[in-house]
Each structure stands twice: as C-alpha cells, then as structure tokens.
Design brief:
There is one protein chain. The longest helix is centred in the last third of the chain and has 17 residues. The strands form two sheets. The protein has a five-stranded mixed barrel, surrounded by four helices. The N and C termini lie far apart (about 40 Å). By secondary structure, it is α/β, with parallel strands linked by helices. It is built from seven helices and 14 strands. Helix 2 runs parallel beside helix 6. The protein is about 25% helix and about 30% strand. The chain has one domain: Rossmann fold (3-Layer(aba) Sandwich).
Length: about 290
C-alpha cells in the first residue's frame, strides 16, 4: 500500500492538513466553496449551530448544522491554483489515514458546491440572475498536470471548441468536465445552465484590456458564439473547471452556481450584487436542507 511521504502530504503539528488546517472530524460531507473569506460568515449565519471555526491565510472554514444537516463552508481564495490546494487537501482529509499516511479502504465522496459570482457571456442573461455550470471549461491547464481517465473529459466538445475559436497553441490546452448530474438536478433544476469558462486571470485571460494590449482581442467574441449540443458558454469565472476536474477525478460530486454580477456583452453591472448573492445563498441552503 502506498505511503505518502512527509514532503508530499504535509501535516501541521496537530495532525491537520497543511493549508486548510482541517482534520476529518472538522468536515461535513457537503462542502460549500466560496472564493471570498468574508462570505463564509454570510453563509454560516444561517446555521442553527456552528461547531468548527478555523482560519489560515485565505482558507476560512465554518462547519455546523442547519435543519439537522451538517454543512461545511470553506473559502478558497481566487483561482484554480488555490482550488488545486483545496480539493486535494479536502480529499486527503477524508480519504487518507493521516496518522498512518496511507489511503483509507473506504472512500468518502464529498459534495463540493461552489457558490460564486461571475460575468455573463450571453446578452440574454441579466445581472442578478443565478446560473448553474453544467460544464466547466478550463483555460488554466491545471488538469493537464494530472493523469486522468479520458472518460472524464468531453473530448468532442473540446475538439469543436478548439476548431471554432481557432485556439492558439501558445495558450494552455483547454479541457471540459461535466457537473455531477445529481447535484445539478437537486439544486439547479430550474436555473439557466450551460458551459462555464474558467480563466487563469481576471484581466487579459477574460478579455479585459487596461494598459497591456490583448494578444487575442477577438477571442471573447468567438467564445460567446460557440455552441455544442445546444450548450452555450454562459459565463466567465476563475474556479469551476478545476473543481470539476479534480473533484470528479477523486470521486467527489461537484457543482457551481453563480450569481451574474456583470454582463460582459451588454456592459451592465449589478446595482447591489451583495443582496443578490444573499438570495442565491438562501435558495441553495433551502434546497440542500429540505
């Protein structure tokens, strides 16, 4: 049986996993992921009881119960690099015996649900709309560093996307992974859904130009025009593809629901996105605990 070395599975003196500082008992099977650490208490204030509060760097965790269901809320910070840390360490906490440093015989499947904000890439999606990511399209290249089952990715959709956008070889090779249908059906059955593009930056990689010119100024228009099996690319954000790719590779259930705070096509921005995000939180918590 494989034993994980100290340099590969790094633990804190209290035996918790290094960055997220969590032990197995600190986690619920359902983990709500948010980028902003200050959004953790915005969610946990709805809990009937909070039993765990831990924080280190941008990784803040509250675990408690709501309507008899145990839930964890964890902030990831921004970007797929942080998701690489969070998903691997969440999996380690529940699927590795941290004392013996070996995989557990029984696998625990977590529900990893991202609640975030994003920019719409379709003109019909108004600001303050909640959308579900049926697919995560990664521009970040993270999955390409891992060995994975080819059945995980949507190869035909990837090939069509590369052809349609005339994807430049200088950019990371894109990948597309589907959401977990059970979570999509339970939490987002009546929400607009489609393909969520995950960028590895907020400015250039999402087609924003300030003082540095864009290398591919036509790329966003090609992204917006892409369609495959009636699926459109509906929004841009910075975490979903990695959650889907790593989460599903490790045997977890994954879903992202985002509030549209801006429409990149119509150039609109929400007048009160915090109130809209709160409504999204209330909706998801109700569906998770009903």
């Amino acid at each position: 049986m494989k034993k994980f070395k100290e340099s590969e599975l790094i633990l804190n003196p209290d035996g918790s996993v290094y960055h997220i500082q969590l032990r197995p008992e600190d986690l619920a099977d359902t983990v709500i992921l948010v980028g902003d650490q200050y959004r953790v208490p915005v969610i946990s204030k709805y809990f009937d009881k909070i039993e765990v509060k831990k924080a280190g760097r941008e990784f803040v965790t509250h675990t408690g119960t709501l309507n008899g269901k145990r839930l964890t809320v964890l902030s990831t910070g921004i970007g797929t690099d942080n998701i690489d840390i969070v998903v691997n360490e969440l999996d380690a906490a529940v699927n590795i015996d941290l004392e013996k440093r070996v995989p557990k015989e029984k696998h625990t499947a977590l529900n990893l649900i991202r609640l975030g904000t994003s920019g719409a890439l379709q003109p019909g999606l108004e600001v303050d709309t909640f959308v579900a990511s049926a697919y995560g399209l990664g521009f970040d290249g993270l999955l390409n560093f891992y060995h994975y089952d080819e059945k995980l990715i949507e190869k035909d959709m990837i090939d069509a996307f590369i052809h349609h956008t005339k994807w430049n070889h200088r950019l990371p090779y894109p990948y597309i992974v589907k959401a977990s249908e059970n979570l999509l059906d339970k939490l987002a059955f009546d929400l607009p859904s489609g393909i969520t593009a995950t960028a590895n930056g907020f400015y250039g990689p999402q087609g924003r130009e300030l003082r540095i010119p864009l290398a591919f100024p036509e790329l966003n228009e090609r992204i917006e025009d892409f369609s495959f099996d009636n699926q459109l690319i509906i929004n841009f954000e910075m975490e979903t593809s990695a959650i889907y790719a790593l989460g599903r590779t490790l045997g977890h259930n994954t879903l992202t629901i985002c509030d549209i705070v801006a429409n990149r096509v119509t150039k609109q921005f929400s007048k009160d996105y915090k109130a809209s995000v709160e409504k999204m939180i209330e909706l998801v918590l109700e569906r998770l605990t009903s």
